[in-house]
Each structure stands twice: as structure tokens, then as C-alpha cells.
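Input/output pair, single chain:
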Amino acid sequence: MGPSPLSVNPPQRWSNSIGDAVVTPPEDDALCSERVARLPGVVFCFAPETDYPLPNWDAPEFLARPITFGSFNNVPKLTPRTLALWARVLSEVPGSRLVLKAPSFGDPGAVRAFSQRLAALGVDSARVEFRGPVGLDLMMAEYADIDIALDPTPYNGGTTSLQAMWMGVPVLTLHGQHFVSRMGASFMRAARLPDWVVTNEDDYVRMARCMAADRRALLQLKRALRGRLRALPDWDVVAHTRAMEAAFERMLNLPPGPGKRAVAIQVQK
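Output:
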């Protein structure tokens, strides 16, 4: 017996799940123990409460500084595979830097441990900057220091990726085999930026090198990214709310209990 007639993604005993065409593609329905309500757009809609100011991307220092990759993800996502992949990126983009920001990096022990892991992968410590926690406003402002966000694998960024995009920082992501390893692909495809989504590690490194090579094109994208998002239906909070409501209504009208059948949710625009 479930805790209520309808449960959606609770810690246990769920009977329904909400996804989209990227994180929960139709071909995966047979693998799901719960019914999947597939939204017409992206599964997560980002609506910041504050209109955080964007940097002046036309300032000369943005072209003059070394290309800077970054990740603001929590340290459990910085897996050995992720660090090895990012070490390859730094090797292929000479002179580039990597900024790693997470609450754990307020602890010198965590900084030391990750410095040693990256050094073992051949990364010069002078190319890596660790940053600890600050308030949200200051954290959002720190995206001005990042040219390209690197998505971890296999557990992609969620809120951190959406925050980066909102602040004009595109996210390079590796499309994986699970919900959590497809979130970046969902966000970047919804932003109409499919070139930033790759399916293997070699292409991840190649695209990092390619995107870093054309600084002016990168700055042009960064200037336009928030406006692009605001103009797209997947960043329409009202439309997303209506889609969620429609999903819940459809679930309530289905027989109780888990099932394999996906719920097709179509919302009239």
C-alpha cells in the first residue's frame, strides 16, 4: 500500500515518474518499474527569483584572459572518470584553467585531496583554482569567471547547469545511459544548442577544444544565451506548470499501482 492514492518520485514505493523525451526516452519505458509521464518540454524549468545581473561580456578582459573551464557541482559528482576526462580537456586546450567550486572546497583537506588526484592525472596545480561556498548572489556573480561549464559524468549537474546557462555560460555535456546522466543533454537540447551535447569522451574533449578555440563566437553565444532561454517555451514557467498539472491529472485517472505504460502528456499551447 502506498502512502497516498498517487505518488510521484518519493524516496520509496513510487508508482509514477515525470520525465521528458531526453531523460526518459520512449525506448526506456520497458526498463521502468513506474509509469513515466513524459512532458512535452524539458523536465526541469528554471525560474530564478532574482534577475541576476550579467557580466559585461564586451569588456576586453574576457578576450584577454586564459580560457577558463568550470564546475560548481558538489564533490560527489567529481568522479574519477570525470576528473580524468577534464584532465584530458586541459591537456588539449593549452593554457586553459579549471575553476572547481563546491561547499566542500571550504575545507583545506578536500582541496588537498582533489589537487593530488588531478596532479596524478598530469594536471599542473597552477591551472586549477578551488573555491568554497559563498552566498547565492555572490555565487551567481562568480559565473563571470567561467567561459565554459564542464558537466560531470555519470551524474550531471542539475541546478548548477541551469544557473550557469542563465548567467551566460554554456555547458558541455556527455549524454549518458540514465536519467541523471541525461539532464545536461535535456537542458542544452531545450536551449537549441545540440552541438554542446556529445555521446562519447573523445567528442567531449574535441568539442571542448573546438568551442574554446573561437573566443569571439563563444562570447557572442554568452551575450545572447539568457535572451535565447527567455524566448524558448521550455523556460516558460506558466506553460511548464500547466504541463505538470496535466501530468498529475492524467496520473490520478489511471488505475492505482505501478505499471510499465508511459503516460503521454500533451498540453495545448
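The longest helix spans residues 215-231. The first strand starts at residue 16 and ends at 19.
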